[in-house]
Amino acid sequence: MAHRVLIVGGVAGGASCAARLRRLDETLEILVFDRGPHVSFANCGLPYFVGNVIADERTLLVASRELFRDRFNIDVHTRHDVVAIDRERKTIQVRDLASGTERVERYHTLVLSPGAAPIRPPMPGIDLPGIFAVRTIPDSVRIRSWIDERKPAHALVVGGGFIGLEMAENLAHRGLGITVLEKLPQVMPPLDPEMAEPVRAHLAARGVDVRLGDGLVRFEAAGDEIVAVTESGARIRAGLVILAIGVRPETGLAVAAGLPLGPRGGILVDEQMRTGDPNVFAVGDAVEVRDVVTGQEVVLPLAGPANRQGRVAADAICGRTSRFRGVQATAVVGVFGLTVASTGASEKGLRRAGVTAFERVYLHPGHHAGYYPGAKPIHLKLLFEVPGGRILGAQAVGLEGVEKRIDVIATAIQMRGTVRDLAEAELCYAPQFGGAKDPVNLAGMIAVNHLDGDMPLAEWTRLDVEDCLVVDVRDPDEFAAGHVPRAVNVPLGELRRRYAKLPRNRPLALCCGVGQRAYYAVRFLAQQGFSVANLSGGYETYRALCAAGVIPTPVTPR
Ligand code: FAD
């Protein structure tokens, strides 16, 4: 009798597991069940389908039932809900949603890839018409129809994470005015606040009404529209509401079958994606995996890990020794032309995990050589271990070339690289693509300069605490346009003439526009015997830290 593998959920993790199984073993009997009308569809494309950037629904269908049957001899059952698992008998109970009938299917091996469901908080008015979440093609078809038929003028997007912001962009593309309501004091929660600040500013500049630090309390019907009432008492009127406040792993089936969950509420699996039962595997958004940077267990709903886990599970089922290495949360999102990307841990994530021996550098280099027309700044933050220099994470925001830098750093993290590897990395260079010192090299070099004591980094958040003198080495007109409170201005070009008047009994914190001129000043002053450090990222970073509320001190008014 053929070994029978049943797979619950036929999208990212389930479909990749099924296809890999077939590539490895022609003798397996493989059946996939999905309660939805499609398998292997592009959930990541759904916001763009709503925005009509992807106009044809069929484009979202990566593979069909027929393709699975004809190309891979895989038996796909859509509109089939798996309602129970009997691990002793090794069977599942399946409900055919078209006929309403139920049947029992036996397995030798079961793979769960049920994904994660959008969170719908139980609050008054949550079931009013016009309030949507985005998970499936039918969800996005309903949103499109609502827009086409009702022609709402304004949409409320609840949640400022990546799905919320993609939906905001796409609804704006459809001509709707947008309010984004986010309970946290920042958009893009995976980022540190000062890195999310340019994203907020960009949204505001595109006319999006961004409300931070305010949560939803209830919805009320108001004629054809909905009023969202918030904790602050604000009443936001909208003809369409998108709930994008996160997802919850679909663990109901696993829990009912007695499979253990992990501390973060995902299905517990080993490195080969095996659950507490050796005959049951689980992959994707529903499982809990190890974060390779912090070592902590996490639930990370992203397509890349789901696909890789599906592959690992298939390998394991076929007797191979592949292991899932863990996740590092590499992600990217486009927001009204801005690219926002991150990999590894954020500063707040490190603190949550109890990691304290780390440093950070900020830089704002152009995405390609400055002398070639059109260079756009990339705002980059790199976190690394001290004193060892292991790379812990990076975040970047900019108009061009952002994801390329984060992908390079992501690869270095996966190889357990250090900032010295970034400094040495040999990357593509021609004027229209990068710099002879790429932003990735520069980030590594700045970090190495700190580790080697050539350019110690000053702590922005400790300026008020430590008795240091901020020396701003920009030109007087730049200084006059805004500077750190109590800073003195000694332009770099005058430093060699004027340095003798600087105090030798206080540490000096050097500041400039983005950190480069301050670096030259640090090197000069250090060799004259001063105690010096660089305020990483310069005044550009200072403004973002102030705007995000990380530094309470306001920018000196002029
Ligand atoms: P899913 O792909 O969600 O598949 C689970 C399937 O299982 C579903 O079809 C469900 O109907 C079915 N199912 C569940 N329970 C049962 C049951 N009992 N019986 C039968 N069928 C069942 N990730 C990125 O990395 N980049 C992106 O840009 C990105 N954009 C996204 C945009 C949106 C709008 C959404 C919703 C997600 C996005 N994601 C993105 C996340 C990514 O899609 C998921 O991480 C990935 O699809 C998870 O794969 P999965 O196999 O675990 O679950």
Draw up the topology in text.
Layout: E1 4-8, H1 12-24, E2 29-34, H2 46-50, H3 65-72, E3 75-78, E4 80-86, E5 91-96, E6 102-106, E7 109-112, E8 116-118, E9 131-133, H4 137-150, E10 154-158, H5 162-173, E11 177-182, H6 193-205, E12 209-212, E13 216-222, E14 225-230, E15 235-238, E16 240-243, E17 247-249, H7 252-256, E18 267-268, E19 280-282, E20 287-290, E21 297-298, H8 303-317, E22 331-335, E23 338-344, H9 347-352, E24 358-363, E25 378-385, E26 391-398, H10 402-414, H11 419-424, H12 439-451, E27 457-458, E28 469-472, H13 476-480, E29 488-489, H14 492-498, E30 508-511, H15 516-527, E31 532-535, H16 538-547
Flavin-adenine dinucleotide binds at residues 8-9, 11-14, 33-36, 43-44, 46-47, 81-82, 113-115, 134-135, 163, 250, 253, 284-286, 301-304, 306.
